[in-house]
Specification:
The complex is a heterodimer of chains A (about 425) and B (about 375). By secondary structure, chain A is α/β, with parallel strands linked by helices. Chain B is of the alpha/beta class and about 375 residues long. In chain B, the strands form 7 sheets. Chain B has a 7-stranded mixed sheet with strand order 5-4-1-6-11-8-12, with helices on both faces. Chain B has a 5-stranded parallel sheet with strand order 14-17-20-23-26, with no helix packed on it. A 5-stranded parallel sheet of chain B has the order 15-18-21-24-27, with no helix packed on it. Classes of the chains: A alpha/beta (about 425), B alpha/beta (about 375).
Chain lengths: ~425, ~375
Amino acid sequence: MKVLALILAGGQGTRLGVITNNLAKPAVPFGGKYRIIDFALSNCVNSNINMVGVVTQYMPHQLVEHLGIGKPWDLDIKDGGLYILSPFLSRSDKSWFKGTADAVYQNIEFIDKYNPDFILILSGDHVYKMDYNDIIDYHIERASDCTIACMEVPKSEASRFGIMVTDPFYKITEFQEKPKNPKGTLASLGIYVFNWNFLREKLIEDAQDPNSENDFGKNIIPKILNENKNMYAYNYEGYWRDVGTLTSYLECNQEILGPLPALDLHDKYWKIYTQSLELPPAYISNKAKINKSIVCEGSEVYGEVENSVIFQGVLIEENVKIKNSVIMNNVKICKNSTLENVIIGEKSIIGENVKIGIGEYKESKINPKVYNSNISVIGFETEIPNNFVIGKNCVIDNFFKKDEFKTLTLDSGEGLLKEV
Amino acid sequence: MKVLGLILSGSKHNNLEKLTKKRTSAAVPIFGKYRAIDFTLSNMVNSGINKVGVLTQYNPRSLMDHLGSGKEWNLDKKRGGLFILQPFLSVEEHIMHYRGTADAIHQNMTLLRRADEDFVLIGSGDHIYNIDYRKLYKHHIRNGADITLLTKNNDGEYDFKDYGQPIIKDNKVIDFKEKSENKVSDKIFLGVYFMNKALLMDLLYSSVPNGEYDLLSIILQNLKKLRVLSYDFQGYWKNIKKSLTEYYNINMDILNPKIKKELFFNQRKIYTKIKDYAPPKININANVSNSFIADGSIINGIIKNSIISRGVTIKAGTIIENSIILQDSIIEEGCIIKKVIMDKNTTIREGRVLESHNNEIIVVEKGSVL
């Protein structure tokens, strides 16, 4: 039985704001030392799936750099391994991947070469642990043509997902893509198992349909349903999160904290692998106070940290107070600064006496669809000058340098974005 | 310029007691995630050496396990790479051990003979320092040396009787006192040799078959004929196998930000075996101060002036002070641990008190459950 996993990693992740301005969503740093795609990749190798294609499109630079030849995941092997599938120009004049189905369709030749019995379609955007053998076994047992991993979600959240309606035996009878009035609460996790021959046929049919958006959720799944094929929902009960919004990103990072975390990264039997930096252990000085937090290697802490994730190589100087925040790699936070509900991108420098996350919440003047919580976001490689005061729900773009700031305050709901 | 690196990985004679019962001194864990050999190995790699032979013999298993294919030091190469040189039986050699440093290299002469490197750097696996050997090469070449010894000024920091003292006149080593009680020189010898490969081969061919098994004494016998120079290293340098107290103090030195900065910085990284542990987690009940915390550890207790290695679990209500806790150890609830070295995979049961008196250091042997 041959299984090929295809991770769709082209997602732009527009709802993460400036975080994904220069970065594909699967490459977004997560959990102190990981990137989001590490979860899908580690799940693959932990499930003994050693043939993995990663389909890239949007801003692939850092993603490709992170993946390399797949060494950290033991995917630098002779039989199988890691393949990065980038969009290409072909004779048929199709260039960029239109939808998720098109991304697979354009790689048919690659998949055919390996000729798997089953293909596992995954998304590089999700944080979860799953043994894919379970869903594949389920797929085989039911003689299913297509099996979709699903999870019960709260009714209020259901309209964000593709919703499955099933019969008592979990055979899918109806499907709604991001419905306004959801008929159920069984949401698709974007994890599909197909018999390759079957999917191959469907992809070719779909590609020839000029009205199709070439998307699994919008076209392929409804079509399979119309043909009354064997399509089953696999009800997953473990941990799974879509970290597509700033709120869910911050929350999900915090779900690894505490003595009984919802997402246990310390689990020895399901390790998450990543490209590690060479850094000495974290140093915590006698002036530091750390509470319910992760402080990664290479960091030095002289201030106070509470309920936060401190990535690698971060310097937190004396009298700094950090609460409910995510501080990415190689950030420097100078003394006497106070940060609450903040996400700070890699290599940024926060000056002395800076305050972030103070005052009342106000609706964003920048983009209320993206910035709609107490969280303030500081982009990558940005320098915040001394004594700067930043409110709630603010955003400062990537690569802002000290002398580009005209004032020393930013009210709640405001932001500074560079023109594109 | 091509240099072949050789690392002597420690003999049976060292003072680390329980810590080297099951491992050679080069494999002794240090600073939460490293092993002693990582420093010399990384120094070599960072100085452009890409062929390194490690001479092992005493308890090599954990060292071999650590080194693997040399991948972590970028030494899994087609051209060059890592060579593990262990004693073996052959038609010529009827003993299965190395009788000394010179004998060890002599028995592995093939590596030298086949190497296209012109120079050899011989280091030790027990030394903790971060050096750019390239400065040493330059010094060697510019001054037309036959052999260059790495030395350091001794302003009383090092005990004379533990180190060789080279006597230097006009920049040349003219005499050498080994393990003398008195100060005869301002310098100590750091056990690192740099020389032309052909010269080393000559010295070994002419001396080892005549029963001279120690490299240093072979060089000293030829001091008059050879131009032996010294190159002074200015920075932090320690030999980990001198004593248990020394081992303890070196570990604690890393809590000094100045020393940490000197040993660990971006330009010359110290590489080690990666273990894929999750980031360290400091929980609600924890209180950590002046400590080094490695990946994979879960902290619930009070930690003060300590080194916590990878994968250590410290449960609530436990107090740890001035201690070194090595990999994957577990300390249950309500323990008091003061000035203790806990080796790998040890467990301290609930409520135990391990407190050293008279400034002694307690060592908990690898794998034990107390």
